Amino acid sequence: MTDTESAVLLKHRDHGVAEVVLNRPDKRNAFDDVIIQQLINTLTEVSSNSKTKVVILRSEGKHFSAGADLGWMRRMADNGHKENLDDARQLARLMEVLNGLRKPVIGLVQGAAYGGAVGLAACCDIVIATEQSSFCLSEVKLGLIPAVISPYVVRAIGERQARRYFISAEVFSARQAQEYGLVHIVCDDAKAMEARCNEMVQQLASNGPEAMRAAKDLVFAVSQKPINKEVIEDTAHRIADIRVGEEGQEGLSAFLNKRKANWVPEKE
Q1: pLDDT, tens digit (0-9, with 9 covering 90-100), for 13-27
Q2: Long-range contacts made by residues 264-268, C-beta under 8 angstroms, separation at least 24?
Q3: Is the separation of the CB atoms in 137 and 165 below 8 Å?
Q4: Any long-range contacts for 261-266 (C-beta under 8 Å, 24+ apart)?
Q5: Which is it for strands 134-136 and 171-173: parallel, antiparallel or unpaired?
Q6: CA 107 → CA 55, 59, 221, 265, distances in Å?
Q7: Are 10 and 20 in contact (CB under 8 A)?
Q8: Can you give the pTM of this predicted structure?
């Protein structure tokens, strides 16, 4: 399958920015097992690329993603337990890869984000949406549950909101999603969202790539952990390790000598 035929595109921008693009606008970017595997492969590729500093997850067309493809759901309904378990594990693997990606991930959400697409948003580090964006954990309408996305969605919006929306399958707005913690920034429209994304990319470009990776790992290391001696000691080791590392030394030297660090791109 060529890039022009692929439902998942990889585009490289200047200064180490990679765009992972869902490219099924005619199907509202609904995904199936093939697209899930394409996403896993593409995200794994950008994660291992040392030249990539920031990843943008986005979609073509009016909608971010309608969630599961109807044909895929029909096939799964006809399959047995083992096939359904294997299929669920593949989607769970996608969420795991995206959530743990070794780069900052900016998610751009326009239009609808339904079902598993809410899981994709919850796995991004920074989510930007528009006033017209809408979200729905719609699985119970089909007699299903948002199972493999639930660890990430619950961490994003909290148990209380998850209990409501997992059960009700209500649609909620971008402003509500921002209030709950799923979305960080809400823009007037798609054009404003694009501009805000570019500003965020510039913001991230000023930061040490290794430091951002370590900061992301730090959140995972301390989140929902008791503040005990083990956690305190671990955090002390983490800052000591990064201070004496090459990037930490360069960052401190640049700051003390009032110059730009060597990872900051030159303005065009």
Answers
A1: 988 999 999 999 999
A2: 264/205, 264/206, 265/14, 265/15, 265/205, 268/14
A3: yes
A4: 261/208, 263/53, 263/205, 263/208, 263/209, 264/205, 264/206, 265/14, 265/15, 265/205
A5: antiparallel
A6: 9, 9, 23, 22
A7: yes
A8: 0.94
